[in-house]
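re: that chain from earlier
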Amino acid sequence: TLIHIATSTLAVLVAAYLIPGVHIEGYFTAFVVAVVLGIFNTVLKPILILLTLPITILTLGLFTFIINTLLVMLADYFIPGFSISTFWTAFLFGVVLSITSWFLHHAERS
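^ sequence. v structure.
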């Protein structure tokens, strides 16, 4: 829905503001990042989790953080105006984005 996309865009802006090494040129770029990450999480993430199921089970699910990081780095590659400096910055961006999104979507329901 439109509210879900707006809160995801806000979460991207908050995460980019909090983490040094993440650069977003403007609000429209943040919107594009939110939409692209949403598409990646809907289409690519289940396939990647299925393909990496043995290592995901072996690491008790912690490998999904690496999958999230790779999806953020993939978005960085495809979206002009969105840049992430290092792997660990992308990792932290994914964690902060997840926490911020959870908080905003939870606040949206209340």
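The mean pLDDT is 93.
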